[in-house]
């Protein structure tokens, strides 16, 4: 029997760092290869599935069905989950290299982009990332509080994350109570006095980053109506051409136009959509009281138009503001990091130092390409990286201790309480059972110690 890595005698040992969609698609792709590969998927959390569990909005249950695909991958005999392990803290990258022939980074984009304006950090100004992580039960965000006692909330940015935040603020308790939103956040949201939700886009309606199903939904809510003025939908010639050439933007525009033709809203809450405005400053005495917005115009006439300030400003009084202007990757010690884009520099998924690939290090998903695309985008993205990894197998330096037992010993000696996939299945079953009482798909555990207890680890 051959002892070359990638054979029955010596399976290739690969660590995948991150168990979100890109990590699971990478594992799936490796299991479909001719080479024999054992895949250990790491996550700093006790639960797998990354943004599908902690990012996808609770009221978008359909999107979470993709977990079935990941469960199938996890059922492969060559799969193992190492949950509750932070790479870079519990095990350094160079230590991982002792146990794995290759490492695939699938650690996503864990922080948010900054606006870089005065007042950005005033109490009352939050990131969408922290709000989303809080209502989805991410254990690191449960100590956050969001002041929803003022009638006006503002969201900066017009991507799908901004839409999720807007919808959670806009929906009635009846619309949310049977979702997997956490009981704690539901309680807080029930006390919300927010009546006006303003979503601010720096460019025009033809350039909005949200997608048609998301904007359509705002026309169908129980206690909230969308508001957009006909004047804000007027397009310049370039935008009219952009719209003609982009099916999604055209559909978005159709929904916006419909909203602009509605009679004046009578519902309890309003979702007010602004275009061509940028936040210039957040102002308040010790806490956020208002945002200064500058009106923009579009510049550039070929390809992508960008926004330019006109100098004309307006003031919007508000009590909470959510910055939703995109995610950003964070570095891990031992891996090069491209500061500007917030990604691991790579060529088609091979992590590079300058332009030289670093043998055995790969990237997939948002840490590879930046925070764009929907869940499904990660499948071809992961396949492309794994194709390169498979090509590289003959030239990879075999690791010193190529067994799962060796790496498990490492964590045992270090006292790291690793959550295996079987442990996760116990947590999963307990959450589902808890949820049944409240008519929810599950009641998520929001603290690590509760999860360790459910997995019988403490
Ligand atoms: P995004 O789609 O990139 O949207 C970012 C938004 O922030 C854009 O409107 C952008 O405007 C704006 N922005 C950026 N910098 C700004 C600044 N300095 N001032 C004002 N506005 C600024 O990012 P996202 O919403 O975080 O979503 C990330 C990815 O996840 C996207 O691909 C999204 O589709 C996906 N996602 C999908 C779903 C779903 O399928 N339901 C749900 C959530 C997220 P410009 O366009 O002018 O740059």
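Sequence proposed for the structure above (458 residues):
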């Amino acid at each position: 029997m051959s002892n070359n890595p990638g054979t029955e005698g010596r399976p290739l040992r690969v660590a995948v760092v991150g168990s979100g969609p890109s990590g699971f698609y990478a594992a799936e792709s490796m299991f479909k290869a001719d080479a024999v590969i054992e895949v250990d998927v790491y996550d700093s959390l006790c639960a797998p599935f990354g943004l599908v569990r902690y990012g996808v909005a609770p009221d978008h249950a359909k999107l979470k069905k993709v977990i079935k695909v990941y469960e199938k991958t996890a059922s492969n005999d060559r799969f193992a989950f190492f949950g509750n392990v932070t790479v870079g803290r519990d095990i350094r990258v160079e230590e991982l290299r002792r146990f794995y022939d290759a490492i695939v980074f699938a650690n996503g984009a864990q922080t948010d982009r900054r606006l870089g304006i005065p007042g950005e950090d005033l109490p009352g100004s939050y990131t969408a990332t922290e709000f989303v992580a809080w209502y989805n039960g991410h254990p690191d965000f449960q100590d956050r509080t969001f002041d929803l006692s003022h009638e006006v909330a503002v969201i900066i940015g017009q991507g799908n994350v901004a839409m999720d935040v807007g919808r959670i603020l806009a929906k009635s308790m009846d619309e949310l109570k049977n979702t997997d939103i956490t009981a704690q956040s539901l309680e807080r949201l029930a006390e919300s006095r927010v009546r006006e939700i303003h979503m601010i886009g720096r460019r025009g309606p033809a350039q909005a980053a949200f997608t048609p199903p998301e904007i359509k939904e705002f026309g169908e809510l129980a206690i909230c109506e969308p508001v957009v003025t006909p004047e804000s939908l007027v397009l310049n010639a370039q935008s009219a051409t952009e719209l003609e050439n982009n099916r999604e933007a055209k559909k978005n525009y159709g929904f916006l136009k419909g909203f602009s033709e509605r009679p004046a809203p009578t519902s309890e809450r309003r979702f007010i959509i602004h275009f061509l405005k940028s936040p210039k400053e957040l102002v308040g005495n010790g806490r956020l009281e208002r945002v200064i917005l500058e009106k923009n115009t579009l510049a550039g006439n070929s390809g992508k138009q960008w926004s330019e300030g006109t100098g004309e400003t307006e003031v919007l009084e508000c009590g909470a503001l959510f910055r939703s202007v995109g995610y950003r990757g964070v570095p891990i010690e031992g891996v090069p990091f491209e500061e500007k884009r917030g990604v691991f520099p790579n060529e088609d998924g091979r992590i590079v130092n300058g332009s030289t690939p670093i043998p055995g290090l790969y990237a997939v998903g948002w840490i590879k390409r930046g925070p764009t695309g929907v869940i499904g985008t990660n499948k071809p993205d992961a396949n492309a990286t794994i194709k390169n990894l498979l090509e590289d197998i003959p030239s990879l330096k075999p690791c010193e201790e190529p067994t799962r037992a060796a790496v498990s010993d490492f964590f045992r000696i270090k006292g790291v309480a690793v959550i295996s996939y079987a442990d996760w299945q116990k947590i999963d079953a307990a959450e589902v059972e808890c949820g049944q009482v409240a008519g929810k798909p599950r009641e998520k555990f929001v603290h690590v110690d509760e999860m360790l207890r459910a997995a019988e680890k403490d």
